[in-house]
Amino acid sequence: MAMEAACVLAVVVVVLAFLSSAARGGVTSTYRRSLQALPDMPIDADVFRPPPGFNAPEQVHITLGDQTGRAMTVSWVTPKLPDSNVVRYGLRADNLTHTANGTFRRYSFGRKYRSGFIHHATLTGLDYGTKYHYAVGSGDTASARSFSFTTPPKPGPDVPYKFGLIGDLGQTFHSNDTLSHYEACGGDAVLFIGDLSYADNHPGHDNNRWDTWARFVERSVAYQPWIWTTGNHELDFAPELGETTPFKPFTNRYPTPFGASGSTRPLWYSVRMASAHVIVLASYAAYGKYTPQWRWLEGELRRVDRAVTPWLIVCVHSPWYSSNGYHYMEGESMRVEFERWLVDAKADVVLAGHVHSYERTRRVSNVAYDIANGMATPVFNRSAPVYINIGDGGNIEGLADDFRWPQPDYSVFREASFGHATLQIVNRTHAFYEWHRNSDGVKVVADHAWFTNRYWFPTDTN
User: Fold this and answer.
1) Which of 59, 222, 224, 230 holds its CA 20 to 30 A away from the CA of 134?
2) TM segments (predicted)?
């Protein structure tokens, strides 16, 4: 019996050793779908259809109006006339007793495009964790429309919250799958990692495609806040069209609460939602030493209070770690500038897009590398964040299937498929992460992991 027990123990040790070894090895998914890029959905597709009624408000979307969610900025477009800038809101759909006054603007792009009347109004003095109903449109010169949202809970160390993670969405049939699948996941808010409409992929940066995109995503973003990161497709820098102001369509349409976090530009800012402190950086604005973004991040990291918001999440567009040949090492200069700061701050997760595939890394850093010492291989670092590339929302440019071989040690899982992810924060120590592949119209969880907090429970795995 002793010999038999010893044999069983030996088998168990071998199996555990194999599993441990396998856990250290990265996985490149063998799943394959057509890599053919799909065009954008036709401009008369039902998901782009304007709402009924004369001059009806459309493209309704909300985002935080302050750092924590006691204010919410509502934006909408009236296509024909400016109409009222007032948002009516309250705790019941049939009792909208409060009002918020806003402003409107218009912009032109190139010689052919003039926007509708873009309205922005911020609702203030809201209660945490409360459902509000709201309406836009006067009913006189614009048909009124009604929506609702729930404010985030008051920030606290063990407040649960579920983020959707979406990047590089665009407006193809794949994009529609991604948005439908996210809606089925029941997230509370979206961290959007850049590249919204891909209007610049159309001749003349056709800004009508900004309008179709906003009508397409209204079914989600009118009901919950999306936190915006800018990508390269938001630049819309087109000197050949006489357009030399970067981010012009984006900044006219999509406000951010940058002033509340002491930022000087709407492209970089922070929010505190439930138990997460979310920092948004701009890959396509200056970030070198002593620039406004550099100075802001230096101060912002000192303002993070892990006793109140233990989860530190950073959003960029161009990845700092990616083993895909597409856009390879384009984020390297930003990594060199800021990685040591994030490791010192014990950031939990860095989210990126840009590369049109999915990849999740181990907790690695390359902070020892100084270009002269030759130490250029990323190494495991329990204080480092997990890097997630989620630039696979479904855009017009197609998938990036050019993974480099051999798969680097820092890469845990990678796959050239469209999809979205969710990050469900449970408490100050644990969060559950899933990546949902768009599997030919069916939502499939293809990758998942438990993350442990770097400040409160820094384990050696996730």
Assistant:
1) 230
2) none
**Could you tell me the two tokens for 378?**
């990323």
327 a catalytic residue: yes
Give the model confidence (pLDDT) of 327-340 as tens digits: 988 999 999 999 99
Answer CATH for 158-194+267-461 from 2.170.130.30, 3.60.21.10, 3.40.50.2000, 3.40.190.10: 3.60.21.10
Instruction: Measure CA of the first residue to CA of the last residue in the chain; give whole Å.
Output: 39
Alpha-carbon distance of 428 to 278, in angstroms, equals 15
pTM over 0.85: yes
Q: What is the DSSP letter of 44?
A: T
Cα–Cα distance between 399 and 40 in angstroms, integer?
A: 14
Q: % helix / strand / coil in the chain, to the nearest 5? A: 20, 30, 50
327, 354, 356, 420: the active-site residue: 327
The two tokens of residue 305 are 């209070």
- Tell me how far CA of residue 25 lies from CA of 60, 263, 294, 297, 414, in angstroms: 45, 41, 36, 34, 12
Interior angle at CA 147, CA 142 and CA 151, nearest 5: 135
Omega before 255 within 30 of 0, i.e. cis: no
**At 334, phi and psi to the nearest 5?**
-70, -35
Please identify which residue in the block is written with the tokens 């906003």. Answer: 214
Identify the H or E element spanning 296: helix 292-303
SS3 20: helix
What letter would DSSP give residue 234? G
- Break the chain into its structural domains and give their ranges: 158-194+267-461
Residue indicated by tokens 């969060």: 431
Task: Name the token pair of 201.
Answer: 């992929």
Rounded CA separation 415/392 (Å): 10
SS (H, E, C) 63-128: EECCCCCCCEEEEEEECCCCCCCEEEEECECCECCEEEECEEECCEECCCEECCEEEEEEECCCCC
Give CA 60 to chain center in angstroms: 18
pLDDT digits (tens, 9 = 90+) for 95-131: 999 999 999 999 999 999 999 999 999 999 999 999 9
CA distance 74 to 82: 16
